[in-house]
Structures are given as C-alpha cells and as structure tokens.
Amino acid sequence: MTIFTFTKNEPTEETPLLHQHVSKESTPQQHPQSQQQQGSWWNWLIGSSANNIDDLEEEDGSNISNLELYKSARMSIETSKETSHYIFHNSSDSKNTELSVFGTLTEGNPVSYNSRKRPLLPTEVLENAIIGSHHRTDSVSSTVSVATDTMNTTHTSNDKIYPLFDDNYRETTWKTKIRILSEDVICGYKSEFHLYKNTPKNILKKKNKQIKRITIIGVHSFLPNKMVRALIGQNTGNSIRFVNKASKSVINWLRENNPDFALEDYTIDSLSIEGQGKMQDRIEKSMILIKNWMHLLESSDFIYMVSFGTSCTFAMNFLARLLTDYPHISKNTKKKKIGVLCMNGNFGGPIIGLDSKLVVRAFTSLENEIIKELFEYSKWNSKLSLQLNESIKRLIEDHNVKMTFTGHVNDCFIPLNSSLGIQFIHPNIRRSLYETEPIPFVSKLLNIICMMNNLGYYNDYNLIKDLSDKLDFNSTGRMFSDEKVYHESVKFILESTNLIHHQDLKIRYRSQPLSNDVFFNLLPWNLRSLFQDLIKIKHIQSVRLIIDLVDEFNHWNPNNNSNKNYKDMKYCLNFFEDFELNELIV
C-alpha cells in the first residue's frame, strides 16, 4: 500500500509530494497528527490513496478486459510526478473506453473498460483547484451520448468569434475555376490567393460519398502547476474536453447538412492524447502509443485534430511526424480530409517579459526545461521554432492539411500575433478571433484585418504585431469550452475548396513591435494603406466595413478605459472625425 507524504510538517500549496512505501514500523496510528494534516488538504483535492485503491478494487471486473492491467495503468497516471504519456480511445461502435499508458503493460496492449470515471494526473487535480476554474471532471463520453447532447443543448455563450466562415469566403463557381485556370495558361501567372466556399449541393454530394469514418484527436500537455497559477490563472483544459466538444460540432455539422442524418451511418472514433513532459519526449512517447490505433487513422475519411494553448505546437509536430512516418494515412488528399484547430496556440512565444516573473528555484530541473521551451518560440531561429516551421510546411504542402488559428484578443499569456501565427502565409490557414469583452473600434479593426488575411491580403502593415502588446491582458478565456469555435473550424475544413495550383508555405517574420511614439505616428498612414487594400475586395462589403468602423470610432470614448494606449490611439486618429470615403479611394 502506498501513501503520499509531505516533506514539511505543515503542507502548503507549493509543497512537493513524495511517493513512498509505508514500513511496518510507521503506521497511521503512530502518527495521527500527520494523518490529519494529509487529510485536510491533499485528500480534499484528490482523495486519499486508500480511497483510490478501494475504488480500484470496487471496479466491476466484468466491465474491464484485464483488471490488473487497468489498475497498473490507472495508478501509473495518478502517482506520476513530472512526466506521463497516455491515450484514451472511444468509438461510436462501443460503449467501452480503451486506455494505453506509456511505461506500463498497456503501452502495446490497451486495456478496455466501461466506466465514466477516468484517472487524473496530480497536475490536473491541482489545475482544477485553481480559483475561478471549473471543477467539473470531464469523463470519456461515448459518441452516442455526445450525439444525444447535441440534440438537447444550444449555444449559450455570449462570447464572440469572428470573422465567420460564411461571411469571409465566397462560393466557388465554374466561372471562378475557368478564370483561375485561364489566367495561368494564357497570362502565365497564378491568381489563386485564397480558398473558396463550396456550394451546398457540392457539400452534400461530397459528404455522402466521402465522409463515413471520422477520427477526432484531442491533444493536450499539462504545464508545471506553479507556472499555471502565476501566469495563466486558470486550468488549461484537457484532451477529453476538446474531443467531446469537437465530436458535438462534427455531429452537428453532419446533421445540418443532411436531412436524412442517422448516427449509425457513421463510425466516429476519438483519441485523447494526454500527459506532461518536454516536447520531443511527448512526441516520441505518443508516437509509440498511437500505433495501437493506426488502423483507424488509415481507414478514416476525415481526421480532425484539436488542441489549445501551449499544446498546439506539440499537436503540429506530432501530426507532422505521424504523417511523415506513415504517409499512407493521408493518401489521396483530394478526397481524404485532414484538419487542425489550434486555439490560442503558442506559435510565437508568450507575452514578452513574462519569464522574468518566474523564480527558477521554485521549480524542478525538468519543470524549468519545460517552461524554457515555451519561451523558445519567441526566437525565430531557435531549434523548436525551426522544427515547428518544418512541421507546418510538411502538413500543408505534402498532406493538404487545413488549419484554423483562433486567437484570444485579451489573453494574458499568449499575445495575439503569436496565437494567430502571423508568420505563416498560405491559403490553407484560416485565422479567427475569440473575444469575451468587445473593445470598441479595435475589435472591428482586428476583424477586418483577419478577413483580409484569409483572402490573401497578408500585408497588415504590422498592425497585429504592434497592437498585440497594447491590448488589455485581463483574461485567458475558455474558448476550448465554446462550441462555436469548433463549429467554425469544421466548416472551414469540410466546406472550403482545395487549391487548384500547388502553393508553398511562406514564412515571414515581422520586425519587433515599434515604440509607442513611432507606432502612433505611423498608425494613420498604415490604416489608410490598409483601407486602400480593403476597397479592392468586393464580396465582403468592404465599403460598409469601413463606414461602420469610422462610425464606431466616432462613438468610441476610451477615456472610460484605464488603458492609456486606447486614448492615444483615439487622439492620433482624430482625422476620422472629418473622414470622407472619396478621399480614401483617390
């Protein structure tokens, strides 16, 4: 029997836990005070080890393929210290869940069980206890129960996501295809700058023929808890939650686009990749575990990967490695759909200077290395940045993967230029914004920039980069719990066209943010240049967008906001008060 003991007489939130055996000379009866201290804090969070073992022994063996394997796998997760790697598998064809944990006998032989309970990492338990976080423990739900939930729930979140897919892309026609082909053949240049939206008829036709087997992959890695508390302030979700939300969105999309929808006509599998550790370690260990379900990936018509925060870079590297080592997974990329949703991804590092707020001595050696990796992405020539560049290049150019980068406007950990991955340029990348508190004028401006970016106008005159460090950093948001985020991503992957001509991924790093004085001096000219580009785009009602933006500026009163940058922005753009659209067009 094992227990957790504290290294100090008085346990604190920062006290490390040691996993040790109880000797015959030391019993709970001999140390009642120590036993009481343990029960007063740790047991309140996760329950005593004795209770955990009792739970294991009370498991219905008839619902578990191998009870001993399940016990060892569960205990491996619940008693892990700094590194852990495991995958849950669920299918619409079965009510059971499969679990594979690296370093246990289930590594190459997943154990099957039927229980809504799931083992939790100690790190996850601590994250769930952060003030302001939701304490609900996500269970591995069957696809049938997820489908039922989609019929009984509605979108209640007041948070906004923009630009919407339907508002941003125009429908493709035969005239569009002929124009693109003729300009290439006759004029000798390619004018295909962005993707288009398929017609409803084409969507239904392709869906009925091609999408029958679906695999949804949730990817997540836990971070050192002290860092999460200090810099992020709330839990970072888990792969189970990502998969459940993604499954609902996929099923909703299938139902919306098919009046004869029946769940039994589809096979939907989910793989929840979870754990903690350094980047390369997570990739290597997860690659070993994923082999247990390689047959699912090979037979899938649609592979959908979702991730959040700092796990997004791991998701990109892992998927690129998977498709490189097993290229037959993505054979016939014109028919097979592969898409990725990255919510608030760490593509350019966290907010500059946050690492200086951390005390190195407060973390173990491995935790410091994990944290250091996060900030390496702010260096364009670091080993991790170059690895990420190569991974995204392979996914887009070799496997036609479509990606959605959704950034949180007011995030206090990942800046907007990082979460939107503005250095990556390709039509297969769609960018959108998630907002919990609208910022007058600024929100509309960011919406316009994203719309233009999605349509091939990548020169935003450095506005996103320069605005990123001038926004309010007041929350991390919980976009991974909002189904609208997943729904928009699914629409882009399944309703957009493929490129007619191959295009290489371009990577263009922007200059460092300008000083405030230089930024505000250049802002009027940069906005004018942006508007002149915007006026060239016809189908998104560009003139109306400009008029609405100017109108919102005139009603904007940033004096009520404590952010001085907004006041300075209002002051240096006062020419808007006498703005005439004709002046812009000239």
From TrEMBL:
Domain of life of the organism encoding this protein: Eukaryota
Positions of transmembrane segments: none
Xref: InterPro entries: YMC020W-like, YMC020W-like_ab_hydrolase
Region (Disordered): 1-38
Domain named YMC020W-like alpha/beta hydrolase: residues: 203-531
Biased composition (Low complexity): 28-38
PANTHER family: AER328WP, CHROMOSOME 8, WHOLE GENOME SHOTGUN SEQUENCE
Protein's UniProt name: YMC020W-like alpha/beta hydrolase domain-containing protein
